[in-house]
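Example record

One chain of 206 residues, shown exactly as stored in the release files.
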Amino acid sequence: MVTNLTKKQIENIQIDESLIFLDYGEPTEQFLAPTRGGGEFAATVTVRDIEFDGKHGKTAGTQVIEEQGAHIKVTTLCMSQENLARTIPNCTIEDKDGKVLKNPKTGVIPLSAYLKNITMFAKLIGGNFKKITIYNPMHETGFNTKAVQKAAKYSAAACLQMRYHLCFPHTPPLKPQTSLSHPLLFFRCTESCTCIQNPQNSSTCS
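Predicted structure tokens for this chain:
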């Protein structure tokens, strides 16, 4: 049993709920609030084993990464028209008063329907934040909302679950014997400074 932790190990313990921003660092940046249960990030990978005669099991050097994915899942209590529209790809707000949502047409989803990024900040005991960003995300599965009676802990509210998946930007095939100077980046997990943009200065749900 581990009984003594180093100062560095303690400082890197994640505490409290996360902060979620849509289009962080862009003119369209929005602080997603209020949320419940914090944010959840997951990165996935699909690995294929190359089959060959005489194989005894998994063999180093004969595995291929076929697919990569990442998502951030968050539950928000904000039922604004903008948030509802984001849950269905290319859903639009129709009238001038913004009271009517129109479902999208079937077919190819335009690039304008994607967010530039979704960014999650997780606070560490040491005062820094772990910053996780997914680029070109989209919520693909429609929306799921639930209205419940007032409970002992929470007031009556409707919860909107949002799960943003990454979408790779379209790039033309590379010519043989060429390489990208900057590899395709679809998510990044970094340590950020102790100061992040104050959510009070960002646009919130109205």
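Notes: The first strand starts at residue 14 and ends at 22.
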